[in-house]
C-alpha cells in the first residue's frame, strides 16, 4: 500500500542518534501510513548499517557527501503523497509531524519553525543569536511570509517539490531559496512551532566557533541578497 507520508533522514555519522530517532518517528506516525527513508553518505560509523536494523529504507551513497543532494535523493525515492525531512541528530522533534500533516491539508508547504507560535531555539546563545539575525534579515529583505527561513525542517506535497527542485548550496541556504521561491510562485506556506534543541549525541556538522558561524552567516546573507536582486 502506498504510504501517505515519506520521512527522509539525510545522515552522516549519526550512529548514536538514528535508532532513537527512527523509533520516535514510528511512534509519532503510528496512526498514519508512512515510510522512513535514510539517505546515508557512507558514514564511517556505519549509520547505514545500524538503520537497517529498524527495517526502514536505507540508501547508502558511496561517493556523494552533500546534504542537499541527499535530501533530493530522498524526495525522488519517496512514495508518499507528502514528504518531510529533518536533521537526524534529534535536534528536531518528529512528534510534530502529525501537526505538520494536518496543516498540509490547507497548504502546500509546512515549516517546522523556531519562531512561530510555540517555537523556541534553546541551543547555545551564540548559535541562537546568529540564526535569529539571519531570519530577521531574511524577513526584511525578502518577505514575512515565512518566519523561519533556514529551519531545515520541511514538509510538503511531493508534487510541489517536483516543481521546486532544491538548489545545491554550502549547507542551509537551500532552505531559504526553496521557501522564498515557493512564496513567490504563490504556494501557500504555514508553520508549526517547535523547540530546537542541541544535538543529542555525536559531533555537529555545522560550525560552532565565532569564526565558523561568521563564515556560515555570510553565506546565508549572500544568498538572501542574491535572491532579492534576482527578484
Overall description:
This protein is of the alpha/beta class. Helix content is 40%, strand content 17%. It has eight helices and nine strands. It has helices at 15-28, 47-51, 67-77, 97-104, 125-141, 158-161, 173-184, 210-230, and strands spanning 5-11, 34-40, 57-60, 82-85, 109-113, 120-121, 154-157, 189-193, 195-196. The strands form two sheets. A seven-stranded mixed β-sheet has the order 3-2-1-4-7-5-8, sandwiched between helices. Strands 6-9 form a two-stranded parallel ribbon. It is globular, with a radius of gyration of 17 Å.
Q: Mind sketching the topology for me?
A:
Blueprint: E1 5-11, H1 15-28, E2 34-40, H2 47-51, E3 57-60, H3 67-77, E4 82-85, H4 97-104, E5 109-113, E6 120-121, H5 125-141, E7 154-157, H6 158-161, H7 173-184, E8 189-193, E9 195-196, H8 210-230
Parallel strand pairs: 1-2, 1-4, 2-3, 5-8, 6-9
Antiparallel strand pairs: 4-7, 5-7
Helix pairs in contact: 5-8, 7-8
Features:
231 residues, alpha/beta, seven-stranded mixed sheet, two-stranded parallel ribbon, 8 helices
| Major beta sheet, strand line-up | 3-2-1-4-7-5-8
Q: What portion of the residues fall into strands of 2 or more residues?
A: 15-25%
Oligomer: single chain
Number of helices: 8
End-to-end span in angstroms? Answer: 42 Å
Contiguous uncertain segments of 5+ residues: none
Radius of gyration: 17 Å
- The coarse silhouette is globular
Major pleated sheet: 7 strands, mixed
- Mean pLDDT reading: 92
Give the fraction of residues assigned to helices: 25-40%
Helix-strand makeup class: alpha/beta
What is the ordering of alpha helices and beta strands? EHEHEHEHEEHEHHEEH
- Count of distinct strands: 9
Amino acid at each position: 500500500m502506498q504510504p501517505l507520508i515519506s520521512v527522509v533522514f539525510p545522515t552522516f555519522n549519526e550512529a548514536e542518534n538514528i535508532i532513537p530517532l527512527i523509533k520516535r518517528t514510528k511512534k509519532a506516525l503510528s496512526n498514519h501510513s508512512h515510510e522512513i527513508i535514510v539517505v546515508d553518505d557512507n558514514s564511517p560509523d556505519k549509520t547505514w548499517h545500524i538503520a537497517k536494523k529498524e527495517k526502514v529504507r536505507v540508501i547508502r551513497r558511496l561517493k556523494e557527501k552533500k546534504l542537499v543532494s541527499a535530501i533530493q535523493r530522498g524526495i525522488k525515492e519517496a512514495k508518499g503523497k507528502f514528504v518531510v525531512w529533518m536533521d537526524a541528530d534529534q535536534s528536531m522533534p518528529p512528534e510534530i509531524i502529525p501537526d505538520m500533516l494536518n496543516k498540509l491539508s490547507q497548504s502546500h508547504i509546512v515549516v517546522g519553525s523556531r519562531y512561530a507560535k510555540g517555537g523556541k531555539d534553546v541551543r547555545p546563545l551564540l548559535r541562537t543569536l546568529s540564526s535569529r539575525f539571519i531570519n530577521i534579515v531574511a524577513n526584511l529583505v525578502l518577505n514575512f511570509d515565512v518566519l523561519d527561513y533556514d529551519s531545515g525542517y520541511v514538509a510538503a506535497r511531493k508534487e510541489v517539490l517536483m516543481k521546486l527542485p532544491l538548489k545545491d548550496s554550502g549547507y542551509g541556504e537551500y532552505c531559504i531559496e526553496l521557501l522564498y521561491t515557493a512564496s513567490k510562485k504563490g504556494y501557500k506556506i504555514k508553520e508549526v512551532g517547535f523547540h530546537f534543541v542541541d544535538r543529542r549525541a555525536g559531533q555537529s556538522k555545522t560550525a560552532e566557533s565565532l569564526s565558523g558561524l561568521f563564515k556560515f552567516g555570510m553565506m546565508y546573507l549572500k544568498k538572501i541578497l542574491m535572491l532579492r536582486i534576482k527578484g
